[in-house]
Design a protein that fits this description.
six-stranded mixed beta sheet; alpha+beta; flat; about 25% strand
């Protein structure tokens, strides 16, 4: 190594001298000589005080730590919101019309002369269905940019950032649904002192739900952390003689098959406005409609080259159908990848009168106020 180093230095000095003589320039000779000295310094890595030309890049860890996020309750299954998910495409503002059935009324047989007989009190089957409109009013996207240089040189697991997009969209649907739990949508409420929540509280809510004619199966609840914490303090909840709800393996409290409710979820981000601390009901109370996004096909019609790719994606945890949009920016090569979701939410009586539409399917749990 040292022999090669000396040969390199003498060759560089000789070249500097030749260039200087040919061009009659001492500056050219001096400049090349200085460059030779700098390169020579680069050979001496064992001496920290000498100049180095080598660039050092710190190692980027392969460890990617999860983001600080809460656990989203499992409200997309049978024991949660009423979901209408379809691969059919729609646009913002479209309306999905669901239906809720009515129980027909009984009638007496009319045996009078010229009577109606079996047709007395005749009811049309279509009159036994009431429309429940759901407007697709939410169009949410989570855009992520992958810089060209990051994509080339970085060892960061970029896919981790993309995976969090699904969580963000899943959570925005839950939060939007919970925002419908208002006095204008749900007439019925039940007052509970947060410090005195117990198994008796859930039993009382069960009785209230029975009076409101909630479905006997598939009832669920979602409550804030103080409510869930107080409920856990009731020894009957965790006792083997009662429900044995220990919740030891998961920090987020979840009670199953407790006092007539298939699931009661703790959700720290539960809305606190208007003294709200929880919601109990069946799947008819809050309905969510999700559709694939109907994007413009103008480029195809006009025979213009597409610069963006649109593909369908599904959230493995909730089954929500997403629309993935990706393209490369021509100006710098950055890649933009965005997941989108088109959905609408309807809750309770939707601003109507008491016990109309699906008002009786839910009850608001509040810290102050009167029982209704």
């Amino acid at each position: 190594m040292k022999t090669f180093q000396k040969q390199f230095i003498w060759a560089a000095v000789l070249l500097a001298a030749v260039i200087g003589l040919l061009h009659h320039s001492f500056a050219a000779f001096a400049a090349l000589f200085v460059v030779t000295a700098l390169v020579n310094a680069g050979f001496h890595r064992e001496h920290s005080h000498r100049l180095r030309l080598t660039l050092s890049v710190n190692e980027i860890s392969q460890l990617v730590i999860d983001a600080f996020k809460g656990q989203t309750p499992e409200l997309f299954g049978p024991g949660g919101f009423a979901m209408d998910m379809s691969s059919k495409t729609a646009v913002l503002g479209d309306k999905i019309t669901a239906h809720i059935g009515s129980v027909p009324t009984t009638a007496d047989y009319d045996s009078s002369p010229d009577g109606l007989g079996f047709e007395n009190g005749l009811q049309d089957s279509t009159d036994l269905l009431s429309d429940v409109p759901i407007t697709l009013s939410y169009l949410k996207f989570v855009p992520i940019r992958i810089k060209w240089l990051s994509g080339l040189a970085s060892k960061i697991a970029l896919i981790q950032a993309l995976a969090e997009q699904a969580f963000a969209l899943r959570k925005v649907v839950i939060d939007a649904a919970l925002q419908t739990i208002l006095p204008s949508n749900f007439t019925h409420q039940f007052r509970v002192d947060p410090a005195n929540v117990s198994l008796d509280t859930i039993e009382a809510i069960r009785g209230k739900g029975n009076v409101q004619k909630m479905s006997p199966m598939g009832r669920f609840g979602i409550v804030n952390t103080p409510f869930a914490s107080a409920l856990q303090a009731d020894q009957r909840v965790g006792s083997k003689l009662f429900y044995q709800q220990l919740n030891g393996g998961n920090a987020y409290r979840r009670y199953t098959n407790l006092a007539g409710f298939g699931n009661i979820f703790e959700y720290p981000d539960f809305p606190a406005a208007l003294n709200l601390e929880g919601y109990f009901g069946d799947r008819r109370g809050i309905m969510i409609a999700v559709r694939a996004i109907d994007y413009s096909n103008a480029a195809e019609v006009l025979k213009v080259p597409r610069t963006a790719a649109f593909t369908s994606a599904v959230d493995a945890e909730s089954g929500l159908p997403f629309t993935a949009v990706g393209y490369e920016k021509q100006i710098n090569g950055d890649v933009v990848f965005s997941l989108g979701l088109l959905f609408g939410v309807a809750g309770g009586n939707q601003g109507g009168g008491q016990d109309s539409v699906t008002d009786r399917a839910g009850v608001r749990i509040v810290t102050q106020g009167m029982d209704i």
